[in-house]
Batch of 3 targets.
Target 1
Amino acid sequence: MIASLVVHGLQYIGYVLEVFVLVVLMTQGRWKKYPEFALFAVGYASIDAILRPFILFHYGQTSLQYRYCYWLSDAALTLGAFLLISFFFKRACAEKKDHWPLLRSILSSVFILITLISVFSISSHYHRLIGDFIVEFQQNLYFGCLVLNTLLYVMLTQMEKMDEELNLLVCGLGVQFAGPAAMMALIYLTGIGAQAPAFFELCAQACTLATWLTWLYTLICKRSEESASVREREETSAFAKVSMRRLSEV
């Protein structure tokens, strides 16, 4: 009972954070710098805060409609995350554009490989082909995103000039993937049993909350630091111009 209340509390706090992130993206013009991230955030919030609660309210948690909605939307969100990671890779290669064609080929090959593995792994379940494929594809793509996001983070840390905003956005996405994956591994190793779903749901909601907090911090605080830096450069430039003018007068 207590775990359920905590999960629902984290879930509603997450809805509020999603709204805040969208408001910051739109009102401060941050979507212009990261249009791919803005599109992903809008899609995620629409599914998580509108579509799923709507289906849950009308059909109930144990209904077939909610089950299909959950897995289909989960697959859509994971696919969206894969595309977002791909765009982040492209942005990370902005200074070395000759690296992007190779990375694009690798990302395309990874996606094709994950799709083929998902098809072969459920090839013996013809009676539930579509449903099994969606679940298997989502799980395989999920772990693929975890690996790719980790490699992207390592790539960003090795760059001569680090983009702190991009680095934090990638870190936030990494929390979303790494936390539940670690919890699944812990459940498997410890054999928690009947309490496993509750622990996993609690971990998933906490990681989602941490992800959106990280993104909100990135959009607000880094924007403030950037504005302060711009003002400092403008003041320094103005002071230098005044000094040069006085020297010329002398």
Note: Residues 227-231, 234-240 have pLDDT under 50 and may be disordered.
Target 2
Amino acid sequence: MRIKNRTMNIPHIRLPKLPWRGFLAGCFLVSFFLGILAANWVGREKMIQYGMLNQYYVGQLAYAKLDSGAYFLYLCRLRMKVFGMAALFIYTRFGIFVLPGVIGWYAFSLGYLFVNALVCMKLQGMLLVLVSLFPQIIFYAAAYFGLGRVLFGVTSELSMPMGIKRLWKNPGLFLLLSAFLCMAAGIWLESYVNPLLLMNYIRRM
């Protein structure tokens, strides 16, 4: 007499998906605004006294000699350390705090820097900060965008290119590797391309 194994069917509860693009964008904007508030709290006099964004210091950068190779290695250690930490934490329960925290810190620093530039150098300072962000900011944003997709579990929406789909059956792995490549490309641009743009802009100021 055969006895069939009976298994208890536990209903699967699906948690509502967060609007992750809006969530990360909101973290960025809130932190950017907090950076602006912090800069205003510090005050104009202290910014002018202790800030590095003034005509004298910026003018020195116009003819400074930069070892791009050493700068690239320095940025690799600096940027990849933070990015690698965020990439590891997205596979844990703490990823929901770490990734927005990293993005928020960059946004906070950017907001503070914008106000510092505006106070010390007016419109020229604002443009200087914008020039200092390009073109690497595009690849950095794409890298953290990829981590956000992995963290919030929306890799199933990914439409992978022909050929690559045969090689990578795991969209999450494809996103993670793509994010690291974007980060490496951003570091290379920040080391070799951005300094040229900055020097050309400063010389024309």
Note: The chain has nine helices and no strands.
Target 3
Amino acid sequence: MLEERIELIKLRKYQDNLVIGGTAVIAFGLWSLIRLILFFVINKGMLRQFLEDFSLLEDDMATVKIITVLISMLVVVGLYIYVGLSARADGKEQGNKKRYGYRILIVLLVLSNLLEGVGTAADSINTGDTEAWDTMLSSGLVDLTVFILLIHLFVSSIRVGKLKKVLAAEDLGSEAVCR
């Protein structure tokens, strides 16, 4: 009986981790979108150049590159929001379907975040720009935080699944597994 109570407490803890972590992932996704908008607002010349490039010929490589970057950034923001919403729903046990797809996306986001962090670090070493060290440091800390958050979210989702299976095997009933 005591082991069952401990497992229920662990389940609640990991479900809470999913809800809180999912909210943090959504916030990061929205922050990435705000950062993209602010980048173009602050760099009005770049936005003006982008709009001028957009009106050029369709085969212009600069326009294609900019559009590709913008679309990929919006897709990544959408993935962060989807992962966050799925983690929150899994933590709150909303709906009847089992959610496993977001775990795959978490792994992909971890890998992309890792590659982006390594690329940023390599670029900062290669350029040798010592004036922008504070920007690179803050960007690196944000990337590290998101990396840790995504790993924590993945581990919590795996542990919730395992604890649900253990509790279901012990015939605690659906009311004991549900919050």
Note: Helices lie at 2-42, 44-54, 61-92, 101-127, 133-169, 174-177.
